[in-house]
């Protein structure tokens, strides 16, 4: 059991979530579509695009984020598809951050359209969290022409849950006195970090609600999920002492990763390899620039039904080689027979990072000369691209359509948050 003093429960945490962010920004500039069913999606002409965001009206027709545009249009024949403009989304996000920062320096982004704010120390200047949340909500609507949902609570987990429960342009509060009544009847996957696979495991041991989770046996949860099982139980009981980071805090780099939602499903090994290789090249570039080598990788994907799968594996030698990272990722997916599945989104992370100045212990039974050649090749490619541009040199299998979108979404880099440590 985890114990906290009363001061823990007196914190004032907000979670601000911009409603239907992409589509709200588009409708702000295209008011003629305000009363229509609208979605933001990819390349509609070649039927390869997917739904990235949708209006509540489109949702009523059954349109889902992540599904192909052609499928969404079957459900809603009058659906208006607008192309994404990531530069505009980033601009609006930065302006929102400035508004948040005018109330507190503890502003922690959680994605481009969400932020945690700790306003505990701001009460004497601006009133309590409810007043600050209301003011932020009004300013965002007035200055940026989009709406937000605001969650207020005494910790980050419940603040996030409260904003999910809040309606468009509304505030929801989960406090020390009402959280058992509000939170415990909810299904377990309403809480952050509990997805489909975790829910299934919990359901098998008769844990269906957050109240069930709050009262579950710690040893049973630890056996199922390790230390994360205890975290889930603590969160359900309101015990989350994680801090909202300062907006300009420098986060130590622990992993370097890239992910992409493909323009259409990846159907075979050749297509998967091309996308992984492209992502690995970006990772390799960042490893070199930050003087890191990776001891291992985490590779995963989201399938056609939006279920997620992921696996860790260690490398023979620490590396920054995109080829070695790609080959290990392919080996892992092949081992788990995942290459037979249709992949909608795919991601890969370099993990267990070490300094590139760290000495390497050679293994008598493994060929280190091949590894050294891979490092030299990667270094040469990096310097050629740095001098002549990223398109100056590439691999033949990456020429042509490799089902990676080219609409600017690579500009979006998701920030670190405490949930990433789970």
Structure write-up:
This protein is α+β, with helices and mostly antiparallel strands. Helices cover 39% and strands 19% of the residues. The protein has 16 helices and 12 strands. The strands form 3 sheets. A 5-stranded mixed sheet has the order 5-6-1-7-8. A 4-stranded antiparallel sheet has the order 9-12-10-11, with helices on one face. Strands 3-2-4 form a 3-stranded mixed sheet. Helix 5 packs antiparallel against helix 7 and helix 12 packs across helix 13 (227-236).
What's the CATH class of the largest domain, please?
A: Alpha Beta
**Total beta-strand segments:** 12
- Structural Rg: 23 Å
CATH topology of the largest domain: Dna Ligase, domain 1
Distance between the termini: 18 Å
The largest beta-sheet arranges its strands as: 5-6-1-7-8
Concise account of the structure shown:
The chain has 422 residues and is of the alpha+beta class. The protein contains 16 helices and twelve strands. The protein has helices at residues 6-9, 21-29, 56-60, 69-75, 86-101, 123-126, 129-144, 156-165, 179-183, 196-204, 210-214, 218-225, 227-236, 269-289, 322-335, 368-388; strands spanning 13-18, 38-41, 51-54, 80-82, 107-109, 114-118, 148-153, 171-173, 256-266, 292-303, 308-319, 343-355.
Write the layout of secondary structure elements.
Blueprint: H1 6-9, E1 13-18, H2 21-29, E2 38-41, E3 51-54, H3 56-60, H4 69-75, E4 80-82, H5 86-101, E5 107-109, E6 114-118, H6 123-126, H7 129-144, E7 148-153, H8 156-165, E8 171-173, H9 179-183, H10 196-204, H11 210-214, H12 218-225, H13 227-236, E9 256-266, H14 269-289, E10 292-303, E11 308-319, H15 322-335, E12 343-355, H16 368-388
Parallel strand pairs: 2-4, 7-8
Antiparallel strand pairs: 1-6, 1-7, 2-3, 5-6, 9-12, 10-11, 10-12
Helix pairs in contact: 5-7, 12-13, 14-15
């Amino acid at each position: 059991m985890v114990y906290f003093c009363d001061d823990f429960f007196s914190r004032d945490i907000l979670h601000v979530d911009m409603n239907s962010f992409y589509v709200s920004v588009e409708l702000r500039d295209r008011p003629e579509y305000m009363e229509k069913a609208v979605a933001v999606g990819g390349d509609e002409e070649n039927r390869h695009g997917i739904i990235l965001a949708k209006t509540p009206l489109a949702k009523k027709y059954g349109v889902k984020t992540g599904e192909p545009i052609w499928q969404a249009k079957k459900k809603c024949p009058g659906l208006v598809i607008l192309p994404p403009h990531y530069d505009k989304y980033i601009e609006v996000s930065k302006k929102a951050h400035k508004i948040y920062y005018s109330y507190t320096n503890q502003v922690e982004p959680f994605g481009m359209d969400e932020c945690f704010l700790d306003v505990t120390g701001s009460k004497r200047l601006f009133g309590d969290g409810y007043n600050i949340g209301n003011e932020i909500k009004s300013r965002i609507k007035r200055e940026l022409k989009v709406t937000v949902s605001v969650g207020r609570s005494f910790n980050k987990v419940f603040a996030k849950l409260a904003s999910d429960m809040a309606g468009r342009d509304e505030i929801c509060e989960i406090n020390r006195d009402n959280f058992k009544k509000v939170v415990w009847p909810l299904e377990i996957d309403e809480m952050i970090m509990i997805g489909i696979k975790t829910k299934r495991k919990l359901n098998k041991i008769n844990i269906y609600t957050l109240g069930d989770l709050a009262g579950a046996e710690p040893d049973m949860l630890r056996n199922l999920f390790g230390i994360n099982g205890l975290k889930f139980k603590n969160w359900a009981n309101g015990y989350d002492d994680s801090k909202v980071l300062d907006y300009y805090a420098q986060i130590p780099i622990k992993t370097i990763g890239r992910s992409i939602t493909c323009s259409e499903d990846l159907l075979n090994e050749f297509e998967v390899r091309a996308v992984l290789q492209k992502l690995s090249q970006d990772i390799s570039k960042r490893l070199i620039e930050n003087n890191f080598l990776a001891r291992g990788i985490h590779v995963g994907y989201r399938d056609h039904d939006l279920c997620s799968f992921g696996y860790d594996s260690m490398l023979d030698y620490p590396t920054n080689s995109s080829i070695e990272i790609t080959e290990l990722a392919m080996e892992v997916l092949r081992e788990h027979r995942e290459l037979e599945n249709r992949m909608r989104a795919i991601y890969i992370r370099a993990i267990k990072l070490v300094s590139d100045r760290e000495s390497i212990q050679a293994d008598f039974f493994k060929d280190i000369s091949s590894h050294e050649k891979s490092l030299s090749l990667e270094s040469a490619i990096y310097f050629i691209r740095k001098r002549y541009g990223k398109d100056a040199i590439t691999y033949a299998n990456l020429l042509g359509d490799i089902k990676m979108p080219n609409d600017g979404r690579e500009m979006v880099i998701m920030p670190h948050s405490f949930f990433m440590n789970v």
